[in-house]
Amino acid sequence: MSWLNSFLVTLTSVEPHNVPFTVISIVSLAVACFLFFYLFRAIKIVNSLKKYTRSITSIESSSPEEQLAHLQNLFKRPELKHAWNEFEESLHPQRELEGGEEKIVRIRATAPSSSYFSEQQLVDIPLNTEFFKHLPGILTGVGIIGTFYGLMIGLNHFDPSTPEQVTSSVNNLLHDVLYAFLGSAVAIAASIFITWLEKLSIAKCYKYLEKFTAAIDKLYVSGVGEEYLASLVKSSNESATQARHLKESLVTDLRDMLLHLAESQKVENERLANTLSNTYRESGAQFADQVSGAIENSLKSPLDKIAGAVQTASGDQSGMVQNMLQDVLTAFMAKLDTHLWPTVYEP
Q1: Sign of the dihedral through C-alpha 131, 135, 141, 146
Q2: Structural domain contains residue 262
Q3: Which residues, 6 or more positions from 147, have their beta carbon under 8 angstroms from its beta carbon?
Q4: Residue range 18-58, pLDDT digits in tens
Q5: pLDDT tens-digit map of 200-228
Q6: What is the phi/psi pair of residue 152, to 5°?
Q7: Do 321 and 205 fall into the same domain?
Q8: Which residues contact 190 (CB under 8 A, 6 or more apart)?
Q9: Are residues 87 and 213 in the same domain?
Q10: Using an 8 Å Cβ cutoff, are 42 and 127 in contact?
Q11: At which of 193, 225, 257 does a domain end?
Q12: Helices H, strands E: what count in the chain?
């Protein structure tokens, strides 16, 4: 632990009045850095934003093409050129025919300029606000460290060996504590001052940046996306209405056409059926005549021969039958006479 004792002896060997001087020196250096790297830059940014705002406001009555050319020449600084190039790409020129020539009549914004000329890009990064907004806390910490350092030196010099030494040591301790609190008071006062200036400066920068972006937005009216969307919705509704009317018209025309086609088909079918029926009837009659003629021609001669043969056979048979009948009648009459005559002549 000898190295720790040596370190403590080295720390406490400092004269008590040097502690507040050291704290005040550190605080003064921090305040100087704040003024140079923050406050002066903030004033410069505010003046630049004022100048740009006045320049933009002066061209509100100019033509869109002149406004665009003026802004392109205005934003040539590296921190503004990149933001302007991105914002320029988001602009939407609207053209109309004038005298047979297409000209830009207005330029619309599809996004607010604050999306490109942002607080972080134009204010926070140049001013290093992430560091300087914590500077008051750092200074307060320096003051507290100085206070405890002064107390540590005063307690190290305190000698309670005799009553006279106690009285003298108490006086020295009070002076050392006074020095320590003096440095802490300066650090806290500086932190309050820096906090006030930092918040005031950043508020001024944001205020004039808002005026700057508002001046740009006045040149380019936004809402083109909403207008195009509304126009698209309107066109879609009109297309849907026209499609519905076209559908109804097509359905009506198609129904009429199909009905007419069905009627025409029915008439054609009936006509075709009649034609086919007449054709079949004529063909059947012609075929029947041909068949009957063929049959008649083929069977006439044999039938005539058969008829002659039948007629001849019939004549022969009728003669034979007649002879037979005559013989039968003769025999019957003879037999009848044989039986009837004796009865008649019997007394």
Answers
A1: positive
A2: no
A3: 180, 181, 183, 184
A4: 778 888 899 999 999 999 999 999 999 999 999 999 999 99
A5: 999 999 999 999 999 998 888 776 555 65
A6: -65, -40
A7: no
A8: 27, 30, 31, 139
A9: yes
A10: yes
A11: 225
A12: 11, 2
Three-class SS of residue 249? helix
204 lies in the same domain as 322: no
Angle between helices 18-34 and 135-157 (to 10 degrees): 170
| Rounded distance between C-alpha atoms, residue 338 and residue 336, angstroms | 5
Looking at the structure, tell me whether residues 336 and 215 fall in a common domain.
no
Q: Do 177 and 70 sit in the same domain of this protein?
A: yes
d(Cα 37, Cα 29) in Å, to the nearest integer? 12
Residues 322 and 210 in one domain: no
- Residue corresponding to tokens 């001013």: 127
Question: In Å, what is the CA distance from 130 to each residue of 125, 198, 320?
Answer: 8, 11, 159
Last residue of some domain: 225, 249, 268? 225
Within-domain flag for 35: yes
Alpha-carbon gap, residue 298 to 287, rounded angstroms: 16
* Residues 149, 9 share a domain: yes
Are residues 112 and 11 both part of a single domain?
yes
Whether the CB-CB separation of 110 and 103 falls below 8 Å is answered with: no
Question: Which residue shows structure tokens 């406050």?
Answer: 39
For residue 108, the cross-strand partners are 92
Token couple for 6: 């040596």
Angle formed at CA 168 by CA 166 and CA 171, multiple of 5 degrees? 105
Tell me the pLDDT tens digit for each residue of 166-191: 666 666 667 777 777 888 889 999 99
Beta-sheet strands, E only, within 40-183: 91-98, 101-109
pTM of the model: 0.62
The residue with tokens 């100048």 is: 51
Q: Is residue 251 assigned to a domain?
A: no
Residue 26 lies in a domain: yes
Tell me how far apart the 2 most distant CA atoms of the chain are, in Å.
Answer: 230
Residues of the domain holding 341? 315-347
How many domains does the chain fold into? 2
Q: Which residues contact 102 (CB under 8 A, 6 or more apart)?
A: 95, 96
